């Protein structure tokens, strides 16, 4: 089996510098090949290298593949649209705007590397079409040349990334997972110590949810990794399922510990000693950590046998111990799977303990409304820029709708794309300074290709270094791409200051028009997005109840946790908002308990099923109309009635029904008095 074991320390320590050198080599190869092929715009090959290159070889290959396909599709669209509509500027503008909007809409719905294909197909059509309206007869040659330039750049980037000191995705994913698991161990200690409600614990939980989304995105590239990619991808899917289950599971355990009350250590010393043992075992990341079998045996010994007369505390303890066993199994599996990802193969003799359901493929939040709104934003913005261009008859006016198509597509996933567009303009201005220095001070004195390569090395090596670092990735890519394209290197020097100044002004006018238009049409705030994501979560709970939990547990957890991951950075930005105090895992726990009830349905009597279905109908209505705050008392009464019926069951489904119903009750009514199984009424306190 091919190994993706950790690379030599030298390559890890100096990975940023190595990537920068590799990218510069690929960029110069692409530029020189463009010169040799006498391509009209060889500098596009250079720019493509810096746009397509990623520090990880698998990520470069995936992006390169989809960039080639997207370029060809966008070029084909321009060949179809321009010759047929060039005599009707308004119709041509409308057609291109519709194409870009449609492609962006599909791209935003496909949150995988494949989504890049659709976005690129959209703005490539604009890049080729708008500058070609004055020479429509040459559109086919222009489209072919542009495709050749981009493909040359992609091939050079992929070749160098694959052959010259390649960095595998596997170890990078394993390192990120290591960091995530370290945070998960800290969170486990805090939650099992009864600190679930602490602000620091809430922040850590949100950060882990956001990091899980980032790891998901990185893991998408595993399948394109030449070094054991498919095998590693299989282990990552299994690990992902356990990561998705971990956060709601731990949240459920924290809730059960809270339900037992502050004096749980005095009333249940053996149970709390076991909780401490599990916490210490999970926190121990050493190689010599004892196997999990002893903890599993201790959990089984303390598991109470539930009956119709079982008290609320006994039900709480049974639920806690069941979740504790799952937590131990997941922790053991995570260690095995992370090692498999880092080394490219399953460690000999390792067995997975946690029995996950079949659905392990990523399920991500998709917002058709926001995707359509973003598509409408780029559509209207392009039309506004085209109207300005047509009305003024501006010679370089094609730059405005072109920049609108590129900028609005790039920043469509942001709450306020105008912020990204202004950053785009700011760093392009910095690139303009570099370009002017080269065009009018350095390049005129260069006559040899070797000297040209040496002269280009300082800025482009710096750009590559910035791209290699996550914090400066976008800045580096903007500087590299804009410097390469606006410098417009050719085999002969032909720079003209008037032309350079005019194109620069056109660029900034186009960007500013885009900013104004997108602010009026599409920009929203973080709080608005948070409320929308929360509402989508409430609707998902209602749907789960209406479907009687008839869906895959892992898929539901993945979808809900993905939404929480999208919420996390937005909630961080809302420092003083009450929304930061919302328990985002509550709905996830309730939904998973609804799904868990499905396992019990085939073993329950008709009265119990009727009581459960009545409760689920009420729950669905409640969440459909939910605006935040406390749930209604009628729903609590129906939950308790279903509990009362389930307590009288004798079949195999009783335990699952009780655990699910208790989880729903605790999730929706955490401060309600304890349930009394004898009468179905409430009395006493939660910790009774």
TrEMBL record:
GO terms for cellular component: plasma membrane. It is a multi-pass membrane protein. Keywords: Cell membrane, Membrane, Transmembrane, Transmembrane helix, Transport. One of its GO terms (molecular function) is transmembrane transporter activity. It holds the Pfam family FUSC. The chain crosses the membrane at residues 17-37, 64-85, 91-109, 116-134, 150-166, 371-391, 427-446, 452-468. InterPro entries: PHBA_efflux_AaeB/fusaric-R. It is found in: Cell membrane. This is Fusaric acid transporter.
